[in-house]
Every structure is written in C-alpha cells, then in structure tokens.
Amino acid sequence: MSRRVQVAAAVAALSALALSGCGGGGGASADDLDASRDEVLDAARQVLPGVLDALGAEVQDSYGEFDAGGDGIVDRRRYSVTVIAVGAQGDTDDLVAALEDAGVTDVQVNPIGGAAGQRDGLDVSGSDPSGRDMSVSVSGPYLEVADGVPRDAAREDVDLG
Known about the structure:
The chain contains three helices and eight strands; from the N terminus they run ααββαββββββ. It has helices spanning 3-20, 30-54, 92-101, and strands at 58-69, 76-86, 105-109, 115-119, 122-126, 133-139, 143-144, 156-157. Strands 1, 2, 3, 4, 5, 6, 7 and 8 form an eight-stranded antiparallel beta sheet that branches. It is elongated, with a radius of gyration of 21 Å.
C-alpha cells in the first residue's frame, strides 16, 4: 500500500470517528452528572447564604436544574442553583464585596448590572441588588454527555440551609 493510500485511509478513519462522536471517553455518564449536581449544591449551600445575608436579602425562591448548552449537535449539560431574593440593600459594589467575602475570585462587574466570578472552578454570579428583586447563582461546568443518558429537565426546590 502506497504512502498516499495510507494517509487517505487514516484521514477517512479519523473523519468517520469525529462525525460519529466515537472515540475518546464517550462523554459524561448519569453518575458524572449526579456528581456535578452534588458539587454545585454543596457550593451553593456554602456561598449563597452569606452573599444574601451580606446584602440583607430574603430568599423568595431557590431551585436547581440542568440546562443545555452548546451547538445543538453535541449534548452538553450543566447544573445550576439559582436563588431569587427580595429586599436586598446595596449596589453592585456591595455585591462584589459580598461575593469576594464568600471566597469568589476574579469577580467582574457586568456593564449592564451584576457581577460574576469563580469559586473552585464553578461560576458564581449575582444580578444588581438595587432592583426590586435579584438573583444569585452557582453553576457547574458544561459536561459533554454520552449518548443515551436521559435528560432530567425538572426543576427541584433547593434548601440552602
């Protein structure tokens, strides 16, 4: 077999693997998604109550859910815990201080309001506390999910306490 034929065969095989989604680790399993969910819940319970207390806010609703992301071809999911709170006192500078006091690093102010940063590889964000209500959240990374892993689209109530 000539070198040109070998290269063409290798390219064809790699292209077929890429298009089929095969190869590599195959993506996250249901257990991987559960572990990510548990990690986000633990972080939310450690971070969010302190942020809300610092702003004088009261929890109106708190929930967790998986959301999808990506290009629509590859199944990517992440778990997020979101808190809707009322009665916050302060502004974006106070939100930044509360996030930093909770161990959130690399906090950046969003030009349209709110701020976001990282804690232990998780995204932590909050909306502008000077509005009627605000949200704060902790989100895990998007995981590329293996074929056949069922979707759990249900929202679940989260007890932060």
